[in-house]
Write the structure tokens for this entry.
Amino acid sequence: MNVLVKSATIVDPKSDFHNQTVDILIEKGTISQISKRIQNPKNYKEIRLDNLHVSQGWFDSSVSFGEPGFEERETIDNGLQTAAYSGFTSIAVNANTNPVIDSYADISFLKSKAAKHAVNLYPIGALTKNSDGIELAELFDMKTAGAVAFYDYQKPISNPNLMKLALQYASNFSGLVCSFPQESKISGLGVMNENVTSTSLGLKGNPALAEELQIARDLFILEYTEGKLHIPTVSTAKSVALIRAAKQKKLDVTCSVAIHNILYTDEQLNTFDTNYKVLPPLRTQNDIDALVDGLKDGTIDMVTSDHNPLDIEHKKIEFDYAKYGTIGLESAFGALNSIFTVKKTIELLTKGRERFGLTTTPIAVGNDANVSLFNPSGNYTFSDDNILSTSKNAIYKGKELNGTVYGIVANNQLLIK
């Protein structure tokens, strides 16, 4: 693939051309020249787009599809195409399929399905067999096959000894253990944040305490085992404080936040729209403020779309019975760019690779082209027309977002909408 990208503003602090508007020549998938103006004697395809900006390719640490087993929700092929057109060159994919991804063969299947795509798919293996929370899965075998972490997606490990064993065992091969932050006996049958809003709506509440107890427990176990822990999708102010204190103690812990948890409060549920039913639930403005502060000071290491496609049969039903989850790849950039500066938005979208054992690729001559193309200007209202996923369960419908994603250059391929 040979292409000449014209008049692109580079947003990459690790590049010598950061904040400069330049031409970028890509030959056979490798950046061969960066300059103010590059001639095109070989008549390569030229990319000229309005207010074009490029950055290192974006990474999402928590993406769910459906295949195998739930192809009606999303296939790997369409999911990876959606990720590409949403600006992501790398995604870590959860194990919540049927069967659950919990063996060497399962990891190999995912990698083979994604092999020829522009987007790199990095499998997350289940932490326990069938994600049942009873017995550890084949962690080392999955690591050998290419798993980048181990996580029972949105299923808390209730047995503290099992979490202890997981951290101890995985530390033998630098495995990353993920623990969903929820104490199930406290959360009970709660379907939204426990607060005045849940009381007024007559819906059972899932208190912040459920998240904070689980995080406190896991941090104590982490300190004992000296393992390597990632806490996905934190949502409360006290959770941020707990993790901040743990980092000050030099514990090996990271965490993420779902983008929708820094945009919406639990008051959105007044309409009983099941697109707002997510896990962890939407919390309060005080929690949002703490989460944003955590992103700014580095306590929260990365953002995620927590993309989770669900078919209409699981969402367009009574609120109590609807499944948790929203799609988010298509809206990730526009949502972040509507509340942060362009610089901060790109920083958040490119963070997290190292925690999952992946390398970063600065925009520099001689490096493989692994870049996202976008226009940071211009507002629009997110609607069904912006959805590329097979499932349409989007929390962002009707939300004003900022900026447009054009596509990516990665793995010697160009994908532009």
Remarks:
- The CA atoms of residues 4 and 25 lie 5 Å apart.
- The first helix runs from residue 76 to 85.
